[in-house]
Amino acid sequence: METDRAIAAALRALREVPDVIGSVLAGPDGLLISSDVDRVEPDTIAAMAAATVGLSRRFAETVGLGHHRETVIQADGGCLVSYAAGTALLTVVAMPQANLALVHRTSRIVAQRLGVLVEALAAQPPGRAPGGNPPAPPAREPLPRRTTRPTGSGRPSAARS
Predict the structure, then answer these.
(1) Which residue ranges does the record assign to the Roadblock/LAMTOR2 domain (predicted)?
(2) Residue 134's pLDDT is what?
(3) What pLDDT, on a 0 to 100 scale, did the predictor assign at position 120?
(4) Which residue, 5, 75, 110, 120, is the most exposed by fewest CB within 10 angstroms?
C-alpha cells in the first residue's frame, strides 16, 4: 500500500510543474500501473505510449544511436513525453506553452524515483496486492471482439454484433 501511495504522490508532484496537465505510469507491455490525468483515458495513453516507445527504441537501435531514453511528441495542442522509469514507462502530458526543459528536468528525476518504486511493486508476491489482500477484479469488461467477413466486393468489412 505504501508503494502505491508513493507512486501516486510522485505522479501528483509532476502537476507542480507549470503547464503539466497529467501523467501516466505504464508497464513495458502498455498496461496501466497508475495515472494522474483528467481529460483522457489513461489506459489508452499507457498502451499508445508503450507502442510509440517500442517503435522509438527500434528506430534508435536501427540507426545506431544507442539506448533509448525518451520520446517527445509535440503537437499544436501540447506535448507528450515518455521516459524510461526502470522497466516501466512514464508519460507526461503538457500544454503547448510548457517549458520543455523544466518538464524534462523534473520528469527525469520523477522517472528515476518511479523506477525504484516499480521494482518494489514487482518484488511483491504474485497474486497479492499490497497489504496481503487479494487483487481487485478488473475495473472494466473487455471490449467485444470484432470479426470481419468478405463483402460482395471481395474486401473485408466489420461484422456488426
Answers:
(1) 7-94
(2) 46
(3) 85
(4) 75
**Tens of pLDDT along 33-80?**
999 998 889 999 999 999 999 999 999 999 999 988 899 999 999 999
Amino acid at 42: P
Decide: 20 and 100 in contact? Cβ < 8 Å: no
Please tell me the distance from the alpha carbon of residue 124 to that of residue 137, in angstroms, as a whole number: 18
Q: What is the residue extent of each domain of the chain? A: 2-122
User: Residues 41, 51: contact at Cβ < 8 Å?
Assistant: no
| C-alpha–C-alpha distance, residues 131 and 3, integer Å | 10
The letter for the amino acid at 152 is G
Cα separation, 94 vs 107, whole angstroms = 11
Q: What is the pLDDT of residue 121?
A: 83
Band (132; pLDDT cuts 50, 70, 90): very low
CB atoms within 10 A of CB 96: 11
d(CA 152, CA 130) in angstroms, rounded, equals 55
Report residue 93 as a C-alpha cell: 502530458
